[in-house]
Specification:
Blueprint (H helix, E strand, L loop, with lengths): L7 H12 L5 H8 L3 H13 L19 E9 L4 H13 L3 E6 L6 E7 L2 H13 L4 E8 L16
Antiparallel strand pairs: 1-3, 1-4, 2-3
Helix pairs in contact: 2-3
């Protein structure tokens, strides 16, 4: 399902909860200029329609000891559906992989991974890449700075 148009109140509501999903119904009703009951109904519908897919807490990796972020580009040897799904399964089961994208271009997958240190990265490298016979090649880049981290969807065109 693709939504072409979102009314102004829902747009405002979505913008607010993308930034802070813990905002109270009272605060949301003030910002959106709606009653609390209307905000509740709209949130329920947005969740039902899967426009609001998940509501999660964003944790600080530094405080939790995840000091290093790597961007890993992976090229597979074989591209059969079984081989692609096999790699997807390994990635989905690996907690250190925060994001995975199946991409067109120089590689097949782009991974964003969070690890404690180089020893942890080496373990991840073996689990995902070097011990996987279908991985043809990969390159890993260490992030120097978390310049922007967001999963917010741009809504200005709605």
């Amino acid at each position: 399902m693709f939504i072409k148009k979102i009314d102004r109140a829902n747009r405002t509501l979505l913008l607010q909860i993308q930034k802070d999903a813990t905002l109270s119904l009272e605060k949301l009703s003030d910002v959106c200029n709606l009653s609390i009951a209307s905000v509740q109904r709209r949130l329920k519908l947005l969740r039902k329609l899967k426009i609001v897919d998940k509501e999660v807490a964003v944790l600080n990796p530094d405080i939790l000891g995840q000091k290093m972020t790597f961007v890993i580009l992976v090229e597979l040897e074989r591209h059969s559906l079984q081989k692609l799904n096999s790699f997807r399964l390994v990635v989905r089961e690996e907690d250190r992989v925060q994001q995975c994208y199946f991409v067109a271009g120089q590689c097949d997958f782009t991974l964003i991974c969070s690890v404690r240190d180089m020893e942890d990265f080496e373990d991840l490298r073996h689990v995902l890449l070097t011990d996987n016979p279908n991985v043809k090649k990969f390159s890993a880049s260490l992030s120097i700075e978390r310049t922007k981290v967001s999963l917010e969807v741009p809504l200005e065109k709605f």
